[in-house]
Write a structure and sequence with these properties.
The chain is an alpha/beta fold. The protein has one domain: Acetylglutamate kinase-like (Carbamate kinase, 3-Layer(aba) Sandwich). About 35% of the residues lie in helices and about 20% in strands. Strands 4-3-5-2-1-6-10-11-9 form a nine-stranded mixed sheet, with helices on both faces. The longest helix has 25 residues.
Length: about 250
């Protein structure tokens, strides 16, 4: 693991859902949430960390939901991947308004609005201090943005996948419905799969395991949590090959 200043990680992939951008709204983007996310990204950038982001599209359109309305599944998934591009452009604009350069790279080529995803170019952007926002999922139907995050983290030699959620780690049950649910400090990939813990989908967990990339689950809604986790502080759950493996 490469250290950068006082941080534990040199290159990270932040995965968050599109729904996280809605705030209390039922659709679209909450400007306050976008601004807070941008501030968090700026703070981690100041630590000298290479960052890439993968954002879902559920606040705009979810492919599985569209398919349930009768739209053909491949078409529905393509619509969902386009929704991630909308989110990526919104996040790019807010981050850059604070002076931090970014690049949106899409697995679905649309050169009039963003760059196509090219692995070596993405790495070069990060080396130049730019935040890379990876859109368009994997570019293929039937794969979630969780799987896209694990794939890109593997391709780009990221030290860790950071899954920003609404709670401060992985619980044995939904803590909002079950106040007595147990929060895990550490888990193994196999336990996540065996217990069907709703962290990321099974293909994403399996790919992270194969690539030996730890997954950290934390609350993206807690101010400063992103930067704290980068330095090993604050509540979070870390998923590695062994439950007792050190972070």
């Amino acid at each position: 693991m490469t250290h950068s200043g006082s941080t534990l990680y040199h290159r990270v992939l932040l995965k968050m859902s599109g729904e996280a951008l809605m705030g209390d709204r039922g659709f679209g983007h909450d400007p306050a949430v976008l601004r807070r996310l941008a501030d968090e990204v700026h703070g981690v950038h100041a630590l000298g960390v290479h960052q890439c982001l993968v954002i879902g599209g559920g606040n705009m359109l979810r492919g599985s939901a569209a398919a349930a309305t009768g739209i053909e599944r491949v078409t529905a998934d393509n619509m969902g991947m386009l929704a991630t591009v909308i989110n990526a452009l919104a996040v790019q604009s807010v981050i850059e308004s604070g002076g931090l350069p970014t690049r949106v790279m899409s697995a679905i080529p649309m050169t009039s609005v963003c760059e196509p995803y090219i692995r070596r170019r993405a790495i070069r952007h990060m080396e130049k201090g730019r935040v890379v926002i990876l859109a368009g999922g994997t570019g293929n139907p039937f794969f979630t943005t969780d799987t896209a995050a694990a794939l890109r983290a593997s391709e780009l030699a990221c030290d860790v996948i950071l899954k920003g959620t609404q709670v401060d780690g992985v619980y044995s049950a939904d803590p909002k419905r079950h106040p007595d649910a147990h929060r895990y400090d550490r888990l193994s990939y196999l336990q996540v799969l065996a217990d069907d813990l709703k962290v990321m989908d099974a293909s994403a967990i399996s790919l992270a395991r194969e690539s030996r990339i730890p997954i950290i689950v934390f609350s993206l809604h807690t101010e400063g949590a992103y930067g704290q986790v980068m330095q090993g502080h604050g509540p979070y759950t870390i998923i590695t090959e062994k439950q007792d493996e050190a972070a």
